Amino acid sequence: MSQRNAFRFAHPFRVRYAEIDGQGIVFNAHYLTYFDTAITEYLRHLGYDYEAEVKRTGDDFHLVKTTLEYRAPIRFDEEIEVGVRVPRIGRSSLVFELGIFGKGESEPRATGENIWVNTNQTTHETVPVPDRFIDLIRTLEGDALEVGRPG
């Protein structure tokens, strides 16, 4: 998984007491909350109005897979950054790569991947990722983005 400099976007957090377990480290479920919050901020950074697009199109993304690898502990009151990047977009899916880093660190404390699939909410069928959304992601990710659409 990528080092900190591979991420063009990161969202900062400070670990709260409520997020730690009896061992004094971040409880495992909170890593996914960090990922979800950071993805939301990534979308906001892109200028993508998620709620408005769902209302306008009737399409919505569903999380279909998440992976998480713990590498080093994160403790109470630490400042961390969650890096988010989109390396690949398929016809109806996109992949988020995520990394949690201590402030100023280049090696991740945890890494993960979320896969979203775009689905019409009436038919429950997959639908293409909107071109406008791809363009916004491409603006941030540049040549690092692989788009695998049928030609």
Q: What structural class is derived from the secondary structure elements? A: alpha+beta
Number of contiguous helices: 3
Count of individual beta strands = 6
Silhouette: globular
**What is the C-alpha radius of gyration, as a whole number of Å?**
16 Å
What do these coordinates show?
By secondary structure, this protein is of the alpha+beta class. The protein is built from three helices and six strands; from the N terminus they run βααββββαβ. Strands 1, 2, 3, 4, 5 and 6 form a six-stranded mixed β-sheet that branches. The longest helix has 18 residues, at 29-46.
Which features would summarize this protein structure in a list?
Thiol Ester Dehydrase, Chain A, fatty acyl-CoA hydrolase activity, Acyl-CoA thioesterase, six-stranded mixed β-sheet, 151 residues, single chain, alpha+beta, globular, YbgC/YbaW, hydrolase, HotDog_dom_sf, 3 helices
